[in-house]
Amino acid sequence: MNTITCDKSALMRALWQVIDEVVSAVVAIQWLRQNNNERTSDDRCLVLQYLCRLNYETLKAIAGASSLPPQLLETLSRDKNVNAKYKLAGNPNTPTRVLQELAGDEDENVRRAVARNPNMPSETLWDLAKDRSEWVRWAVAGNPNTPTETLRLLAKDENWRVREAVAGNPSAPTDALQNLAKDEYSVVRREVVSNPNAPTEILQALAKDNVSGVREAVASNPNTPSEALQDLAKNEACRVRAAVASNPNTPIEILQSLAEDENEDVRAMVVRNLNIPTEILWDMAKDKSEWVRVGVASNPNTPTETFWHLAKDRSDCVRVVVARNPNTPTEILKYLAKDRSKRVRAAVARNLNTPTKTLQSLAKDNTRNVRMAVAGNPSAPFRALQALTKDTHIDVRAHAIDKMIDLCENFCVDTFLKRLNTPQKHLSRKEDKDSADITCEEFALWLAQTPTDEATVTLPTHLLKRKDLLGAIVWLCRAPQPSLEEAQSHGLYESSAEYRAAVAAVYGPQISWFDRQLCEPHLLRPVCPWQNKSTTINHTVHPGLA
After folding, report:
1. Secondary structure of 297-334 in the HEC alphabet?
2. Which residues, including other chains, have CB under 8 Å from residue 93's CB and lie 6 or more apart?
């Protein structure tokens, strides 16, 4: 196969300037994830600064990203945009020196984000534990990496929210939890017994608390002793008994007794417990309460025989939950696909395990919501989606088209890679036509995912025959790259707008103001000074591109 070698970085830079801004950001982020070596650190910093200028949402996304160049982190820490500093303060990859600088920021939200950062130095957390803002102290109290002494200090804080955060911190020392177990605020005591490291003696003592919410939290804790659960299973508050029924470590004999509870909420929690025996599930599938039968239908351990019984239940709600259950057998899903209730059929259409033929059948359902559910199912077959793009209802068409776009975006990169690797002599006319239909966006997405250990990329020569923008860019980015004078004197695309736009994209910073008027103005956006590596890192646009 005849090939041509192109400068990979030049290709990427040119493509970013001529494709849509949103696609440029996607391509740039993919390229940044790949480029982590020292050779591309300067390029990465320039690309990130370009993205930061797009909009505030992109700026926040970059500030929260991993593996950022140190010089860019320092720039972002001094940015006037509070949202960017907030994201940077919460980024676990932000260097310690930058975090310490942000800990003194005048904005309370930035200091709060710093206090939550898992990499915050202990001495800085000690200083923030004395912050004037209760929310900053609250963030320190909730940080699992806060030192023990700092947590002991915050356990005596005057604000109950701060003490509540200490009580829920898995790193809280035992003596602090014992003191907080006697706190006057019930929400603090509730957090103590919800702590996974709460001692057994505290759980046993607070199992008799006068506030039902605290007893409920004790009943929900997996570490609560079986003796305490036995007593709580007889508690007068139904919510406490329901919490015992939902506890994954509740003994089977207690679950069996609660299965006969007079309160339907308690019985419903029993059948949702994953440790419940299958024979109890069969009995509870005949319960008079619809809510209890719904619970049986939602349990992933429900046996097939019980599923069949519930699939014929008189309640639409029960059959809907059966159709939603990811462990429902396919034969039952096929049966429910013909249910009289449109809600049941829609639930079948959303189930990821529904067979392809069943989804194709439901795509022709008379009810709009059922067809829309098929369009939103990740397992929906291509032909069903293709048919739904012509649906009579606009919402169904929109869902199907969105899904088709997602499929095409995921497919185009692999497809393009396959086309590039196909020997030209084996390309049929149809494949030649498909290759000519490849867009700049598809090419950029593919290029962003190629290995980054080499500075060049090998492409088939038939790309040079394209009489469009992509063909011109590939020609101009050959290695060794033609000079600007050679590009301007080249006559292949001299009279075309595509060639002038490609020249502007590849040689933008070198083109004079007069020459740039001959290029396509709408295709030459203000971008980073790609070819001026000595430019100072800042947020201003290069003068030559203003």
Report:
1. HHCCCCCHHHHHHHHCCCCHHHHHHHHHCCCCCHHHHH
2. 66, 67, 68
**Nearest by Cα to 388 from 372, 410, 366:** 372
Label residue 313 left, alpha or beta by phi (over 0 means left) and psi (-120 to 50 means alpha). Answer: beta
Number of other CB atoms surrounding residue 24 within 10 Å: 22
Buried b (16+ CB within 10 A) or exposed e, 271-302: bbbeebeeebbeebbebeebebbbbbbbbeeb
pLDDT digits (tens, 9 = 90+) for 24-47: 555 555 555 555 443 345 555 555
Check if the beta carbon of residue 226 is closer than 8 Å to that of residue 203. no
Provide the token pair at 245: 């029924």
Both tokens assigned to 231: 């007593």
Q: What are the domain boundaries of the chain? A: 1-54+452-546
Q: Show Cβ contacts of residue 312 under 8 Å, excluding neighbours closer than 6 positions.
A: none
Name the residue with tokens 């975006």.
Answer: 409
Q: Are 247 and 220 spatial neighbours (Cβ–Cβ below 8 Å)?
A: yes
pLDDT at 68: 55
CA 477 → CA 400, 429, 463, distances in Å?
39, 27, 12
- Amino acid identity of residue 169, one-letter, is N
Question: How do residues 66-75 score in pLDDT, each as one tens digit?
Answer: 555 555 555 5
User: pTM above 0.90?
Assistant: no
Model confidence pLDDT, tens digit, residues 88-106: 788 787 888 888 888 988 8
Residue range 472-491, pLDDT digits in tens: 888 888 888 888 777 777 65
Residue among 393, 368, 372, 392 nearest 384 (CA): 372
DSSP letter string, 237-264: -HHHHHHHHH-TT--HHHHHHHTT-S-H
Percent of residues, the chain, with pLDDT higher than 90: 49
The residue written with tokens 């696909």 in the block is: 337
Bridge partners for 7 per DSSP: 456
Is the backbone of residue 35 left (phi > 0), alpha (psi -120 to 50) or beta? Answer: beta
Strand partners, 4: 459
Element (H, E) at 102: helix 96-102
